[in-house]
């Protein structure tokens, strides 16, 4: 019997390979495997032969210890063989050496004593039928598909979802309940200051992996309804501030609304033109990086209906400013260009 690969396999301590105790739970084994697989994966260590070999060993250990039946068999073999160490029989297939690989398996799988019942499986070697299946899928010299016979776990699929928030909810953050496949809702707290069209990744909340890998993610797209007064410019808030002609001409102190707060007073300097922007610091969007400002753009409002007295006042103002031309030089500039 050729015991080379088998003897090498049973000489390894799979618990030590994963860094767990012999009585480790399935969850502990799975957690340890994931951590080591990420660390030694060939894609993360290109050209590193030692990391590649370590990755194969980790895959072997996980395949044995993650399966309840194979783990039980492995534990029995270790107990009967003094720590999973075996010596090959001498003198060929019928060698007379005692305590070898076949003796342990004949006892373990029902052979008893020195009587050996051998079954040859496709792939070569004399291995009990149930153990042949166990060995056939391992990497590190036992054949099978994938990378060295080891099929790495696949991450579960992502789930795409969307939600619509009010302008204020987006600025302050909000709790959103998502309807997930299977009927179980998922409650999510959106980040403070989330923007329209922003995608939020909820790690580990997606579909389960088909072979023990990490679950997928939920990709949440946020839509934000417009506000009737405020618009967003990065972390700043913008507002159009209507003022009267006399406020613009003579100067004034006017109230400016803030988002969800009390109004603030700002000074309009005498002679302020329409379109000038006034900055109110610290009244914009609050984020982890800081707080933006409130930008109020002045718009001079012209009254549609003037009383007799108001009309006379405007006529007097017109006469008093007859020499001023707001369009002076405009025609010349237009011709020059």
Automatic annotation (TrEMBL):
Lineage top rank: taxon: Bacteria
J domain mapped to chain residues: 13-78
Cited Gene3D superfamilies: DnaJ domain, Urease metallochaperone UreE, N-terminal domain
Start-end of Basic and acidic residues biased regions: 47-72, 324-337
Sequence segments annotated as region (Disordered): 40-73, 312-337
Alphabetically ordered keywords of this record: Chaperone, DNA replication, Stress response
SMART domains attached to this UniProt entry: DnaJ
Listed InterPro entries: DnaJ_C, DnaJ_domain, DnaJ_domain_CS, HSP40/DnaJ_pept-bd, J_dom_sf
Pfam family, one: DnaJ
Name this protein carries in UniProt: DnaJ C-terminal domain-containing protein
Lineage: Bacteria, Bacillati, Actinomycetota, Actinomycetes, Micrococcales
């Amino acid at each position: 019997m050729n015991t080379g690969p088998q003897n090498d396999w049973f000489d390894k301590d799979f618990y030590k390979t994963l860094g767990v105790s012999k009585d480790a739970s399935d969850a502990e084994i799975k957690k340890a495997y994931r951590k080591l697989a990420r660390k030694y994966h060939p894609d993360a260590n290109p050209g590193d032969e030692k990391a590649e070999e370590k990755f194969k060993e980790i895959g072997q250990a996980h395949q044995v210890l993650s399966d309840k039946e194979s783990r039980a068999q492995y534990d029995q073999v270790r107990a009967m063989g003094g720590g999973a160490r075996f010596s090959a029989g001498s003198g060929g297939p019928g060698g007379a050496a005692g305590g070898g690989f076949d003796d342990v398996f004949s006892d373990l799988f029902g052979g008893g004593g020195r009587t050996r019942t051998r079954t040859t499986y496709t792939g070569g070697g004399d291995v009990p039928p149930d153990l042949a299946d166990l060995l056939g899928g391992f990497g590190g010299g036992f054949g099978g598909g994938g990378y060295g016979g080891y099929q790495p776990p696949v991450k579960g699929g992502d789930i795409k979802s969307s939600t619509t928030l009010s302008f204020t909810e987006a600025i302050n953050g909000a709790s959103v309940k998502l309807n997930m496949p299977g009927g179980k809702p998922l409650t999510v707290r959106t980040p403070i200051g989330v923007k329209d069209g922003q995608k939020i990744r909820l790690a580990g909340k997606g579909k389960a992996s088909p072979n023990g890998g990490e679950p997928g993610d939920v990709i949440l797209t946020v839509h934000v309804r417009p506000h009737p007064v405020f618009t967003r410019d990065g972390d700043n808030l913008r507002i159009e501030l209507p003022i009267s002609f006399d406020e613009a001409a003579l100067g004034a102190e006017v109230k400016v609304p803030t988002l969800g707060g009390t109004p603030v007073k700002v000074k309009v300097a005498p002679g302020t033109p329409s379109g000038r922007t006034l900055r109110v610091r610290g009244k914009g969007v609050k984020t982890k990086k800081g707080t933006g400002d409130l930008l109020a753009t002045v718009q001079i409002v012209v009254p549609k209906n003037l009383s007799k007295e108001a009309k006379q006042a405007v006529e007097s103002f017109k006469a008093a400013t007859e020499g001023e031309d707001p369009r002076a030089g405009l025609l010349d500039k237009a011709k020059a260009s």
